[in-house]
Amino acid sequence: MGLLKWLVAIFATLFALLLVAFLAAVMLMPSERNFANEVEISAPAEKVWQVILDKRRYAEWQTAITKVEIVDEKNWSEYPKDVPDPLVFTITGNARPETMEFHYTMGDSFNGHWRGVVTLTATGVKLQTTDSYKVDGSVSKVLIGVFFDIDTFAKDWNSKLKARVESLK
Questions:
Q1: Which residue from 2, 6, 109, 143 could staple onto 136, CB 3.0 to 4.6 Å apart?
Q2: Architecture category of domain 32-167 in CATH
């Protein structure tokens, strides 16, 4: 019987440590994040927007996306690899050739906003993107914080956008 009490004590201790770690993560991980990225693209602004708006071809050059479902001209869903829910997008602002804005959601507890601003450079354009998102719910906040780094995803997306646009000259 001593072994059983010892095993129960170890299990209870491990459970308590996991609970403390989860609560610490909930308290330390921000519910809202904002970040900016920029990329120089050797192409005119309209070519950049053309590639961004050609959602049917995203999976060809965005390897982190398995498929895209287009609802209409302003609404679509992207299915990132190894993520159970799609990112659902809506165009909320279109002032091309300078700016474009999207709202996005994933499930019931994650929503965000993307804004792209193009400025002319000597060799093409600079695309500055800003993302801001909010996660509702403690479990969702920890899961997204641990398993989905949207800042890295956005940097990778911009890098692949640059390669795609520049390959279409």
A1: 109
A2: 2-Layer Sandwich (3.30)
